């Protein structure tokens, strides 16, 4: 097969991978914030629910979760297409790790900030949203960046439930052609570039926001 | 005799098994400036933090402006205070912290206007008018748009004072507000307090290690040791003729530093 | 809705097969961990090399391995090694991939562990005229060991949880076996749930084990033979 054709097939797969990341990342963020805050501030029974979600998704691997959602849930009457199953599984999985990021970042805001907020008589909601959260957000950026890269890597698992992403196409091409070394080299480099772009993006974001912590930005 | 503005009656305070205060009694009159001195760990900060509602109490009653701070009066006597009650009581109090605790994500001006706007419901214009006046008072008018990270320690603390004053408390709590500062910056902060003491009729409760300052500014000085007031009186008397041996020892140790 | 209720009889029927496969999973983890530690330590030491080129090449290798998917690395080894005349069983291929992937992660743990040893220890070793090898072996590593235990343990647990990816190259580990059972019986609920629970259980036990090792590990470090 001409190399150009291989490349164009792979690039199409890369677009599928990008699409999954673009869908799963917001889901993960929502789960991370939602359950992270429940874990920190919700009353007991709800807090335990959050802990169960977090521990379950962190205690088993993304692939098992993916299979469970894709193969088992249909028996309960919830049928997903492969794409939805992939996005949901990865979003929930990375989101569970994200809750710990949210928790750690909230805990890293100095206690004095909370005390000053009490002394100025802010309500508990104001304390959270106006004082603690804006400061915690800055601390969340680097670990969220790492999680985003983990998400990109984890998208390769959806190839195992027949989604034609980058990994799926690489394997299919490798089975069909003899250019296995070139194919996998290209695929690895594509994933690597994707991760590097994300890493740089998050670093820029962090710079921007933490400068905001000194000058403008978040408080306004 | 009028009722004291602050009154501790038989207060007990514990951290786990460590007893800080036991049957502790203490009062401050309206408009009085009281300095608290004493060795480390004697409970000075804890006293202020109980008043600022940052620490609860295990027994007794604290009255502020004739109302129990940590309790609510009901038909069946006193019950522990709820958030609403604490929120209402905090209107009387303001605190300046040793480590400033300015909000790093807000400009100097925003640090001062945020609470008047969000808590007291003032308009932006009203809050900014107050902030401008206070910044003038603490000599920080030209730094209004800067951020805390860009200020020196002395400047930060002057903003901290302005921020507390913006809520117009009747009682100002000052916990070692100069001890995190470089020596050459101490006076610019103390000058602000000196001016305040002259101009306004605040009730001030200050914990300090600056003995000359306590002597100069206070109506009364209390020497604390192990959660109890060992000796109290006019500053001249405490600093020149302390009666208790523990006070003498403490002041001697301080002088010989 | 035949899949809705949990079928205990079916569960007990498939349990032995899945537990049998657990041996493969554990073996892969064990071998993978050993390899990862060797790889991690080598990378960590190379990152401290005196040659700039060696340091930066190692940095980019580690960065590359860490930011590309394990699954693709598994496929890469599985498809590409035979091209170069190396043929390995799926188990060994998997172990190699796990060892390399997690070795890259561990190298960062080891590096910061070694960096954490006081500078004075190096100076004292130099003063005693110890060779670089002896300094690492007798002075630095024994002290660096304890602080590295928790992070190393966590990565080994992470590796254990990722072993299901080896099913992609036909290794008959737990998940693959469960999938086969599921497709033969048209019942996925019990086998997949069982595998999930087993992973959860093993992870918890391992986490507790690491905690114990860390607690019982002498604070002064140990003397390596
Ligand atoms: N959150 C806490 N938990 C447990 N013990 C505490 C806590 N806060 C204070 N203490 C203890 O209470 C005692 C009194 O503390 P406090 O901070 O009031 O002392 P202080 O007089 O302000 O001392 P310093 O001059 O060092 O500020 C100390 O022994 C301290 O260790
Ligand atoms: Mg104190």
Descriptive account of the structure:
- Chain C: One of its GO terms (cellular component) is ATP-binding cassette (ABC) transporter complex.
- Chain C: It comes from Marinomonas communis.
- Chain C: Belongs to the binding-protein-dependent transport system permease family. HisMQ subfamily.
- Chain C: Residues 22-210 form the ABC transmembrane type-1 domain.
- Chain C: GO terms for molecular function: transmembrane transporter activity.
- The complex is a heterotrimer of chains A (220), B (257) and C (225).
- By secondary structure, chain A is mainly α.
- Chain A contains eight helices and no strands.
- Chain A has one domain: MetI-like fold (Orthogonal Bundle), CATH 1.10.3720.10.
- Chain A is flat, with a radius of gyration of 21 Å.
- Mean pLDDT of chain A is 91; it is low at 215-220.
- Chain B has a single domain (6-255), classed as Rossmann fold (3-Layer(aba) Sandwich), CATH 3.40.50.
- In chain B, α3 (108-118) crosses α4 (124-137) and α5 (153-165) packs parallel to α6 (183-199).
- Chain B starts with 5 loop residues before the first strand and ends with a helix.
- Chain B is globular.
- Chain B is of the alpha/beta class and 257 residues long.
- In chain B, the strands form three sheets. A six-stranded mixed beta sheet of chain B has the order 8-9-10-3-11-12, sandwiched between helices. In chain B, strands 2-1-4-5 form a four-stranded antiparallel beta sheet, with no helix packed on it.
- Chain C has 225 residues and is mainly α.
- Chain C has one domain (13-216): MetI-like (MetI-like fold, Orthogonal Bundle), CATH 1.10.3720.
- In chain C, 78% of the residues lie in helices and 0% in strands.
- Chain C is globular and about 70 Å long.
- Chain C starts with 7 loop residues before the first helix and ends in a 9-residue tail after the last helix.
- Classes of the chains: A mainly alpha (220), B alpha/beta (257), C mainly alpha (225).
- Chains A and C meet through α3, α6, α7 and α8 of A and α3, α7 and α8 of C.
- Bound molecules: adenosine-5'-triphosphate and magnesium ion.
- Magnesium ion is lined by residues 44-45, 176 of chain B.
């Amino acid at each position: 097969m001409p190399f150009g054709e291989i490349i164009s097939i792979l690039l199409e797969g890369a677009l599928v991978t990008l699409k999954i990341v673009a869908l799963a990342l917001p889901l993960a963020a929502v789960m991370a914030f939602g359950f992270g805050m429940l874990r920190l501030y919700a009353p007991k029974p709800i807090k335990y629910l959050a802990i169960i979600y977090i521990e379950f998704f962190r205690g088993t691997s993304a692939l098992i979760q993916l299979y469970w959602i894709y193969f088992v849930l249909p028996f309960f009457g919830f049928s997903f297409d492969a794409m939805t199953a992939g996005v949901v599984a990865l979003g929930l999985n990375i989101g569970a790790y994200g809750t710990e990021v949210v928790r750690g970042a909230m805990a890293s805001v100095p206690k004095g900030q909370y005390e000053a907020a009490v002394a100025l008589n802010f309500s508990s909601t104001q304390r959270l949203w106006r004082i603690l959260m804006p400061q915690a957000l800055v601390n969340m950026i680097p670990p969220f960046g790492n999680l985003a890269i983990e998400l990109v890597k984890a998208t390769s698992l959806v190839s195992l439930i027949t989604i034609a992403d980058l990994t799926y196409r690489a394997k299919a091409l490798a089975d069909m052609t003899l250019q296995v070394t070139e194919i996998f080299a290209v695929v690895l480099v594509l994933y690597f570039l994707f991760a590097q772009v994300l890493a740089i993006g998050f670093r820029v974001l962090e710079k921007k926001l933490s400068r905001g912590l000194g000058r403008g930005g978040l408080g306004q | 005799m009028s009722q004291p503005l602050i009154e501790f009656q038989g207060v007990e305070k514990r951290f786990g098994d460590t007893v800080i205060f036991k049957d502790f009694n203490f009062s401050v009159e309206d408009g009085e400036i009281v300095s608290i001195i004493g060795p480390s760990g004697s409970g000075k900060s804890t006293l202020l933090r109980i008043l600022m509602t940052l620490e609860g109490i295990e027994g007794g009653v604290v009255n502020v402006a004739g109302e129990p701070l940590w309790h609510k009066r009901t038909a069946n006597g006193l019950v522990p205070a709820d958030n609403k009650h604490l929120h209402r009581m905090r209107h009387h109090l303001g605190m300046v912290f040793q480590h400033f605790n300015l909000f790093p994500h807000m400009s100097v001006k925003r640090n001062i206007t945020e609470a008047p706007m969000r808590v007291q419901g003032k308009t932006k214009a009203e809050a900014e008018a107050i902030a401008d006046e206070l910044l003038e008072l603490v000599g920080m008018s030209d730094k209004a748009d800067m951020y805390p990270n860009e200020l020196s320690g002395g400047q930060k603390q002057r903003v901290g004072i302005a921020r507390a004053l913006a809520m117009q408390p009747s009682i100002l709590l000052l916990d070692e507000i100069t001890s995190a500062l470089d020596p050459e910056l101490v006076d610019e902060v103390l000058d602000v307090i000196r001016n305040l003491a002259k101009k306004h009729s605040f009730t001030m409760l200050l914990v300090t290690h600056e003995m000359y300052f306590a002597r100069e500014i206070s109506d009364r000085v209390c020497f604390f040791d192990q959660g109890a007031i060992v000796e109290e009186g006019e500053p001249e008397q405490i600093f020149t003729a302390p009666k208790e041996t523990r006070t003498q020892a403490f002041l001697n140790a301080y002088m010989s530093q | 809705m035949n899949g809705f209720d949990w079928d205990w009889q079916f569960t007990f029927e498939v349990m032995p097969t899945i537990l049998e496969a657990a041996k493969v999973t554990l073996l892969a983890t064990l071998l993978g961990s050993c390899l990862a530690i060797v790889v991690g330590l080598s990378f960590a030491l190379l990152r401290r090399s005196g040659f700039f080129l060696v340091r930066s090449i190692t940095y980019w290798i580690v960065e590359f391995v860490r930011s590309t998917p394990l699954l693709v690395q598994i496929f890469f080894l599985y498809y590409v090694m035979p091209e170069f005349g190396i043929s390995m069983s799926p188990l060994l291929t998997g172990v190699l991939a796990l060892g390399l992937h997690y070795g890259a992660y561990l190298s960062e743990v080891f590096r910061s562990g070694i960096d954490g040893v006081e500078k004075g220890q190096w100076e004292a070793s130099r003063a005693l005229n110890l060779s670089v090898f002896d300094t690492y072996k007798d002075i630095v590593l024994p002290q660096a060991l304890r602080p590295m235990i928790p992070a190393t343990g966590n990565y080994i647990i992470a590796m254990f949880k990722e072993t299901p990816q080896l099913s992609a190259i036909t290794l008959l580990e737990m998940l693959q076996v469960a999938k086969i059972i599921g497709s033969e019986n048209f019942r996925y609920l019990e086998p997949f749930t069982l595998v999930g629970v087993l992973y959860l259980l093993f992870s918890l036990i391992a986490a507790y084990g690491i905690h114990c090792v860390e607690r019982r590990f002498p604070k002064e470090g140990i003397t390596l033979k």
